[in-house]
């Protein structure tokens, strides 16, 4: 019998709708796979076996039909799921069960997608390795001694380890794309505002973007189409139709990129990337040229300021967004012995509940917003953001998409970058500019370096998410997909 | 701490010049909260008007209530402000348990309305109070300290938070500093707040009830010697009635003058007005200035009101209270000063409604500005909460007009009405206060009075009609005031053949 966990979401969907297999069987296969391997991978913080089976049974009863009905999914633990623990991988929210569903979760449920559970991540999505999860790191299925990327390492590892065919991630500076790159899976950051943030525990409100993770470009596009769309509950949500990403992915899969102009960002060339990453990226470019694409070198002079600007804007917003975790209304409360003042209890709660990277960023952000420093830091970073946006806009007058490696290095061993935050921050060097601009970007596997996956990033103009899917699918058709060694 | 001898108010204002400024918060009467669909009803059971958004549950996001923006713009227009074509909300960051997000979504350097003014008239003189800004923000919840003797946090065994109020839209109206008012400063402050209240009430965007907290005032006061720079200001909070506005400014002028007299420096601080004593007490110390780390709210898109829409809102503004007052003054046939005192007493609507309920303008004014104003002063409450409604006052006046009550009895009936004993007719009956109109009974009382006072009766018979007063008094005494004095007098004179 076919191992259902090895099939694509598109294939599973067809089999379920033709009753070749039941949704309950598909969910059970994945839950069993989780039981078998997750002790080693630790992709999940919480598995909702009953919830997933109930949702699958509803599909089998014919209550819900649709393109992904019955296809199970894993959801990053930063997204609120009604009645199911949602912790953002933080001790401060240990055991918290939201009384409501995030809009994107509602959409998954409406589409009939059983939610297998909640995936591990860096605490409050701050990190590039899952080493900052308060519940222990996720292991990369390609090498259990290495990081799965972050912050959404759990989501990407879960699909790389065949524990789920699809997963939801969130991308603030690269948290979908970099884990996708280092686990050999696909991860897309949609246009900011095209996927609802309602119910996503905020890290940096102006940057946070939920998006799809899959093993193939088509699967990722299918999930993208289900989760995206205007949401009146998110004021920053764009009231426009979502581009036809599924159609674009299928078009790209035909392997024809005639007339498509790819912009190669000059400032990224060779800059700090590992040799193996650069090599795989160059080979992929050649493959794309063979499919008819044209390569144009583009200068984006302000991209060099993206990382510092990001590390002022994101922590500033985080310092305010995370203020609500004070032990008064929900989550952890420490030191409330009847003798301490409210301020002391709040302070002790935050001291005990937040991990080191979260504290570092709250302090950074608090400082950057302080009176007397605001203009020099937050204000200046916003100006850089505008300049980066102009770089993108100018580039897209010349080319259809921009391309780069997703991240400068392949999965690194645990502990190798935790002692120097800056070394960790470099993982997002190529992904951050897109977040500051707000446009869409996708990471697609393009090769291996010393046996570890390398990601290829395609960046598109805002609300032109379809373009990146077309190029990504074309690349996938040329280089194929990558399977990790058996666990 | 040494006690400083305080000067009299007259002495203080003869030597120092006050500069005042007012920050007024008005809770908008929108059906739903500012960023979510929760109800805004006053007095609901604690924590029954809450949702993930106004409780700031992780992941919840705000969406702006368009009605709140419209109301704020209308207030701005009514206060002669310019309306911003583009502005943003801002986060004001500080930790407080009744503020669910630990930041308040407010406005900072991009207010929705700027540069307006309000003209107020005190003692026939018009003063212009300039408005610096009108902005929109959200209200906080309420904290209740249980178990302590005083309801304060000290000694409390539990602190309970009610989030029903959290997220209700608030409009903050900030004046520019107002110098040059001299000893009129307290009255002008009060007149400004009264005018602001009347303007906002006319827009029907808030019930502007100071006693319920839907309008709250912070009063800034500083003193300087003539010709010198403005002094350091203090901010007085907890000013919860029109009367308190006046008292707060007055007491702060006296207090600061006392300090300045002995060379003590005024500290910039927040003080709290004490309703019972009428003075101010120090509040939260501002030794370390709070850094609110304002930044533009990234969860909300900018506000960019359409110019044509703003023009339409402006053209649809209701009659200005000052214009309306001029019209009513004409209708009621009263002087500007009488009208102003009615306005300052917060009596205009009450008089209007009383007239609408059937009373004559003179009758309506008499009660609200007389007996009821006296009672509201005595009790230290707003006229509107003194305990009588316009309908009741109109009914009372009708009883007088119909001759069922005389003036003295009517006052007693009113006393019963404000004591909650019921409507005037019911109080009159229950207390047995109706004018004795049975002439048989009155005639008997008159005859008894004549019989008991033969000397006086003789004088009257001799034509000394003025002596009748003593007999009238005697009759009124035996009828416990329930007779019409004129009727009694007529009966006496006719019985004694002197009419």
From TrEMBL, chain A:
Enzyme class: ligase
Keyword RNA-binding belongs to the record: no
Active site: 76, 151, 175
The reaction(s) this protein catalyses: L-glutamyl-tRNA(Gln) + L-glutamine + ATP + H2O = L-glutaminyl-tRNA(Gln) + L-glutamate + ADP + phosphate + H(+)
Domain of life: Bacteria
Start and end residues of each Amidase domain: 25-467
Cited Gene3D superfamilies: Amidase signature (AS) domain
EC number annotated for this UniProt entry: 6.3.5.7
Keyword list, A-Z: ATP-binding, Ligase, Nucleotide-binding, Protein biosynthesis
InterPro entries reported in the protein's UniProt record: Amidase, Amidase_CS, Amidase_dom, AS_sf, GatA
Subunit structure as annotated in this protein's UniProt entry: Heterotrimer of A, B and C subunits.
Job of this protein: Allows the formation of correctly charged Gln-tRNA(Gln) through the transamidation of misacylated Glu-tRNA(Gln) in organisms which lack glutaminyl-tRNA synthetase. The reaction takes place in the presence of glutamine and ATP through an activated gamma-phospho-Glu-tRNA(Gln).
Family: Belongs to the amidase family. GatA subfamily.
Listed PANTHER family: GLUTAMYL-TRNA(GLN) AMIDOTRANSFERASE SUBUNIT A, TRANSAMIDASE
Name under which the protein is recorded: Glutamyl-tRNA(Gln) amidotransferase subunit A
The organism of origin for this protein: Actinoplanes couchii
Gene: gatA
From TrEMBL, chain B:
Record-linked SMART domains: GatB_Yqey (SM00845)
EC number from the UniProt entry: 6.3.5.-
Catalyzed reactions per annotation: L-glutamyl-tRNA(Gln) + L-glutamine + ATP + H2O = L-glutaminyl-tRNA(Gln) + L-glutamate + ADP + phosphate + H(+); L-aspartyl-tRNA(Asn) + L-glutamine + ATP + H2O = L-asparaginyl-tRNA(Asn) + L-glutamate + ADP + phosphate + 2 H(+)
Secreted among keywords: no
InterPro entries with a match to the protein in the record: Asn/Gln-tRNA_amidoTrfase_suB/E, Asn/Gln-tRNA_Trfase_suB/E_cat, Asn/Gln_amidotransferase, Asn/Gln_tRNA_amidoTrase-B-like, GatB, GatB_Yqey_C_2, Gln-tRNA_amidoTrfase_suB_CS, Gln_synth/guanido_kin_cat_dom
Location of the Asn/Gln amidotransferase domain: 349-496
Keywords, comma-separated and alphabetical: ATP-binding, Ligase, Nucleotide-binding, Protein biosynthesis
HAMAP family: GatB (MF_00121)
Entry function: Allows the formation of correctly charged Asn-tRNA(Asn) or Gln-tRNA(Gln) through the transamidation of misacylated Asp-tRNA(Asn) or Glu-tRNA(Gln) in organisms which lack either or both of asparaginyl-tRNA or glutaminyl-tRNA synthetases. The reaction takes place in the presence of glutamine and ATP through an activated phospho-Asp-tRNA(Asn) or phospho-Glu-tRNA(Gln).
Subunit-level organization: Heterotrimer of A, B and C subunits.
Family affiliation: Belongs to the GatB/GatE family. GatB subfamily.
Annotated PANTHER family: GLUTAMYL-TRNA GLN AMIDOTRANSFERASE SUBUNIT B MITOCHONDRIAL AND PROKARYOTIC PET112-RELATED, GLUTAMYL-TRNA(GLN) AMIDOTRANSFERASE SUBUNIT B, MITOCHONDRIAL
Protein name, UniProt field: Aspartyl/glutamyl-tRNA(Asn/Gln) amidotransferase subunit B
Organism: Actinoplanes couchii
């Amino acid at each position: 019998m076919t191992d259902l966990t090895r099939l694509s979401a598109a294939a599973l969907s067809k089999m379920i709708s033709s009753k070749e297999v039941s949704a309950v069987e598909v969910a059970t296969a994945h839950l069993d796979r989780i039981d078998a391997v997750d002790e080693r991978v630790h992709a999940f913080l919480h598995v909702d076996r009953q919830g997933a089976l109930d949702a699958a049974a509803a599909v089998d009863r014919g209550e819900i039909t649709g393109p992904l009905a019955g296809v199970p999914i894993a959801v990053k633990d930063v997204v609120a799921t009604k009645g199911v623990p949602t912790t953002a991988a933080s001790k401060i929210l240990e055991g918290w069960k939201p009384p409501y569903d995030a809009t994107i979760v509602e959409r998954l449920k409406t589409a009939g997608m059983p939610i297998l559970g909640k995936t591990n991540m860096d605490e409050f999505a701050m990190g590039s390795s899952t080493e900052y999860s308060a519940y222990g790191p996720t292991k990369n299925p390609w090498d259990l001694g290495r990081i799965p990327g972050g912050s959404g390492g759990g989501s990407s590892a879960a699909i790389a380890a065949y524990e789920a065919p699809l997963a939801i991630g969130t991308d603030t500076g690269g948290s979908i794309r970099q884990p996708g790159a280092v686990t050999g899976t696909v991860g897309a950051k949609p246009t900011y505002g095209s996927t609802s943030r309602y119910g996503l525990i905020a890290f940096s409100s102006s940057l946070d973007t939920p998006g799809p993770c899959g093993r193939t470009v088509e699967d990722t596009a299918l999930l993208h189409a289900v989760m995206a769309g205007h949401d009146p509950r998110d004021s920053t949500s764009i009231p426009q139709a979502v581009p036809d990403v599924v159609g674009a992915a299928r078009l790209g899969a035909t392997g024809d990129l005639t007339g498509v102009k790819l912009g190669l960002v000059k400032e990224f060339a060779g800059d700090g990337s590992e040799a193996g990453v650069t090599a795989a990226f160059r080979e992929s470019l050649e493959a794309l040229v063979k499919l008819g694409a044209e390569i144009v070198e583009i200068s984006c002079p302000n991209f060099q300021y993206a990382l510092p600007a990001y590390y002022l804007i994101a922590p500033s917003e985080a310092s305010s967004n995370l203020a609500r975790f004070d032990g008064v209304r929900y989550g952890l409360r420490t030191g409330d012995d009847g003798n301490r003042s409210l301020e002391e209890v709040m302070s002790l709660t935050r001291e005990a509940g937040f991990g080191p990277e979260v504290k570092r960023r709250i302090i950074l952000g608090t400082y950057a917003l302080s009176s007397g420093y605001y203009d020099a830091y937050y204000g200046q970073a916003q100006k850089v953001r505008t300049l980066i946006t102009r770089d993108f806009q100018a580039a897209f007058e010349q080319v259809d998409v921009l391309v780069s490696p997703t991240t400068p290095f392949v999965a690194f061993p645990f502990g190798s970058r935790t002692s120097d935050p800056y070394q960790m921050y470099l993982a997002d060097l190529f992904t951050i500019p897109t977040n500051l601009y707000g446009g869409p970007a996708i990471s697609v596997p393009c090769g291996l370096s010393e046996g570890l996956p390398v990601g290829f990033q395609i960046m598109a103009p805002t609300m032109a998410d379809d373009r990146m899917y077309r190029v990504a699918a074309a690349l996938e058709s040329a280089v194929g997909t990558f399977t990790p060694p058996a666990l | 701490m040494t006690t400083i001898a305080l000067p009299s108010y007259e002495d203080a204002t003869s030597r120092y010049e006050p500069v005042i400024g007012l920050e007024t918060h008005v809770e908008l009467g929108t059906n739903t909260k500012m960023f979510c669909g929760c109800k805004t009803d006053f007095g609901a059971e604690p924590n029954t008007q809450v949702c993930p958004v106004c409780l700031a549950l992780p992941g919840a996001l705000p969406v702006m209530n368009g009605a709140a923006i419209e109301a704020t713009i209308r207030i701005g227009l009514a206060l002669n402000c310019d309306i911003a074509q583009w502005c943003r909300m801002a986060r004001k960051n500080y930790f407080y348990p009744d503020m669910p997000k630990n930041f308040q979504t407010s406005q900072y350097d991009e207010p929705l309305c700027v540069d307006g003014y309000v003209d107020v008239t005190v003692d026939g003189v018009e003063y212009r109070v300039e408005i610096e800004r009108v902005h929109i923000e959200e209200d906080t919840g309420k904290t209740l300290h249980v178990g302590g003797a005083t309801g304060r946090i000290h000694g409390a065994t539990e602190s309970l938070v009610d989030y029903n109020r959290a997220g209700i839209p608030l409009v903050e109206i900030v004046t520019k500093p107002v110098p040059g008012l001299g000893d009129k400063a307290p009255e002008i402050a009060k007149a400004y707040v009264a005018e602001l209240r009347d303007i906002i009430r006319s827009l029907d965007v808030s019930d502007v009830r100071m006693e319920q907290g839907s309008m709250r005032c912070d009063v800034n006061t500083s003193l300087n010697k003539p010709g010198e720079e403005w002094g350091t200001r203090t901010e007085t909070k907890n000013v919860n009635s029109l009367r308190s506005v006046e008292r707060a400014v007055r007491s702060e002028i006296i207090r600061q003058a006392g300090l300045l007299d002995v060379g003590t420096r005024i500290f910039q601080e927040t003080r709290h007005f004490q309703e019972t004593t009428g003075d101010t007490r120090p509040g939260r110390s501002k030794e370390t200035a709070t850094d609110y780390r304002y930044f533009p709210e990234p969860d909300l898109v900018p506000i960019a009101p359409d110019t044509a829409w703003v023009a339409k809102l402006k053209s649809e503004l209701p009659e200005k209270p000052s214009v309306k007052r001029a019209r009513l003054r004409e209708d009621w046939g009263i002087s500007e000063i009488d009208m102003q005192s009615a306005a300052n007493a917060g009596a205009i609507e009450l008089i209007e409604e009383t007239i609408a309920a059937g009373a004559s303008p003179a009758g309506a004014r008499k009660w609200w500005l007389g007996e009821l104003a006296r009672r509201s002063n005595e009790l230290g409450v707003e006229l509107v909460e003194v305990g009588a409604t316009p309908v009741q006052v109109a009914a009372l006046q009708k009883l007088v007009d119909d001759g069922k009550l005389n003036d003295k009895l009517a006052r007693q009936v009113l006393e019963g009405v404000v004591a909650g004993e019921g409507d005037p007719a019911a109080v009159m009956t229950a207390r047995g206060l109706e004018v004795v109109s049975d002439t048989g009974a009155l005639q008997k009382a008159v005859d008894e009075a004549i019989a008991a006072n033969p000397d006086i009766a003789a004088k009257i018979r001799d034509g000394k009609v003025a002596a009748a007063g003593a007999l009238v008094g005697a009759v009124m005494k035996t009828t416990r005031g329930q007779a019409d004095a004129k009727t009694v007098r007529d009966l006496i004179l006719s019985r004694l053949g002197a009419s």
